[in-house]
## 1
Amino acid sequence: MAVEQITETRTYLTFTLDEEDFAVDVSNVREVLDFTNVTKVPRTPDFMKGVINLRGSVVPVVDMRIKFGLEEAEPTVDTCIIVMEVNMEGEATVIGALSDSVKEVFQLDPSQIEPPPRIGTRLDTDFIAGMGKYNDDFIIILDINEVFSAEELILFKETLDSPAAKRSKPVKSAEGDEPGVKISSEEIHPEEEPGEAEAEEENPKEKAGKTKAKKKPKSKTAK
């Protein structure tokens, strides 16, 4: 995706890799999980850490540091797995992207996004959608659908049927129940409560005596 294709305000999730800030469009993000044990799959690339069993579905986990040619790091309390959908030719593949930490969800206007630099970056600019400016800092906006090749996506799907994937145990929190969720789907994709839009259209007399539905917090908008 070229920066010229970003023509409207969009919401992004930011995360860090080697002290560098990155962002992905939340339309590709499902949820963010605490780091958990990953079942290794033999004969896969170094950046392919293995798979996790998430609520009965096997999800391949990718170390984004290694994928981007950065030094591998030991997990910390902030390490997390960003569960995302990668789309290619109309087909979606769910992956878990291992990152150093997640930061926040916010909006960027097209005027706050510049084309990626031709030089001076450690990454392949083919999968950089642009450079976003937020709070006086520049953030690398990834086009996650361009990060992985068709061959790599095929490999991800093949791991789902591997013996290791079938042996993987369901992800659980420290308490032993549901997966440890850092940011839920509801927090990433807040929606208006049903009926709120209709209430706004009522005339003042019809509104009298009615209790207005509370609005859910909205994502921050960069200034």
Note: The helical segments are 64-67, 144-147, 150-159, 163-167, 185-188, 196-201, 204-207.
## 2
Amino acid sequence: MSITPELANDGTEIINLDAWSAAAQNAKIAGVYAVLDAERCTQYIGYSRNVLLSLNGHLRQNGEQKCAFVRVQAFKFPKRQEMEDLQDAWIAELESTPPGNVTERDMWAGTVGDAAKAVMSQAERQAYEEKKLKLRKAMADTTLSKESEIIDASQAERQRQLEAAVTNDDWSVIIDAQTQETKY
């Protein structure tokens, strides 16, 4: 989806977060954003390749009082350095650095990924994990072999249990394992 007129501004307009989120609902917008509280004091300035997802994470993590308004400058062709430069410029415009960029950093920047994952649907999370795995494989991530050894060991144990159930005609272990899997 393209950037709509309500979302395409020069980053100077402060907009109610709910209104901005509603307008951005079907758009993946990259950009620099500032989160302001109910008194319009800047709480955090960040950048993201998916501003809506980041804002939803911040809202879930910090609540509506701290995340009431937003200022966003969208980037049609985002480059990390350009977004970092604009983030620094916005911070420099303020009298003091926002708490989310200094003292409360772990409430904002450190949790964006986790908070974003928390608001994903099960299908979005599965797609995200699959894409992450593909990228790790493409980058020849050495930790994958250790993880696959653990997975292989658990699969080998399951195979051994299945063979024992067939041989001994005792399916209780298999049924118990399946019951435990469905509880979570």
Note: The chain has a mean pLDDT of 81.
## 3
Amino acid sequence: MITLRQVDAFRAVMVTGTVTGASVMLEISQPAVTRLIQDLERVLGFDLFVREGRQILPTSEGRMFFSEVETAHLGLDQLTRSAINIREHKEGGLRVVTIPSVVTMFIGAILKVFNSAYPNVAVSLEVQPTQRVFEYITSGQCDLGLSTLPMESPLIISKSVLRGQSVCIFPKGHRLGHKSKITPKDLENEEFISYRSDSLYRHRVDQVFSGAEVDRKLRYEARTTDAVCKLVASGLGVSVIGPSFPGVNLEPSIEVRPFSPALHGDLALLYLKHRESVRLIEAFSEAVVQALPTGRRRRSR
């Protein structure tokens, strides 16, 4: 049976051109190199070298065998590089679940930063409503999530990466244009475009208007912030969206004002507490922080 030590000795002679060079390369004695070559020739059933004076030259069979050895050696080099990449988490895959507004506003910049540091890590992106992000993480369908808070679960670590708050949006030329801040009373009897009824943020907004005893005309609703903005830009009504983040530009044909009372909502990375390894998650977190516009950040909880 061929041993790796025999192959190493053969390759060292081929690379250096001498038994002396091979012994230096392998840090063994010249007789040890010679014995390894002879043992290999016995296993193979043909000569690898011939001597001409003080020179040792490969036979035609030896040259053909060396070609195969080099191919195998390149494979071993690749295995070594792969092992290093796996150890340093520079290979593998990451399954990310996020919400539609993050895809629209941030995900391209985030993945660009992450890919520059981890070009061999595959990223699978799942886009779901906010209320389903936890489900995808806790069920193991995704490794981490990027979504808005508040969300609470004893199983999940949330790491805030950007602070945002609610804003009121309305079409350009609307009667609210002269106001610097919008309150629920300002929106009484307005055509109001809501998020879908299963949205967590929708319920927070509805509670604010209910507490202020303000009625709105609720004919239109949409799943995503992008869709809500499109409807407002078309002149179909006004809305309160959130969280709005620093550096993010909305539709050019709508106006934006702070909404009071403010509904704060952080953008956060979410992942299970008890994962075997979080190094790729931490690397992705660093990419998120680098890619996002400057905002007020909080600690993990």
Note: The radius of gyration is 32 Å.
